[in-house]
Specification:
By secondary structure, the chain is mainly alpha-helical. The chain has one domain: Arc Repressor Mutant, subunit A (Orthogonal Bundle). It is 59% helix and 9% strand. It has five helices and two strands, in the order H-H-H-H-E-E-H. A hairpin with a 6-residue loop joins strand 1 and strand 2.
Length: 111
Amino acid sequence: MGNTYLRFFRLMSAINNPAFPTLDDTSRKILEVVSAEAYLSNRYLTVKQLIEMNALGSKANLHSRLLGLVESGYIKLVPQSDARYKDIIPTAKTKKYFDTLSKAIKKSLEA
């Protein structure tokens, strides 16, 4: 059985850190997609690119979740030279969030 995942799930449920408010599934997925591009591919997605990802949700839903992530301090929107386009940039809070997840994964593998 997937005991490693279950240990990870238990660790994440036990983390009661007010610095990381609970993210709904769509917001978490947006944060994962945006961060993977930024940290692994060294490029930023634009708002337009994200909104066109229909698999994540409707355009209206993605817009509202994106604004929620900005308000929560997980990402910032930075205009490009053409102000109609904005890059989605993960903040230090996002890096800390994924560092916390990584530590929980490592700890779950140790048990």
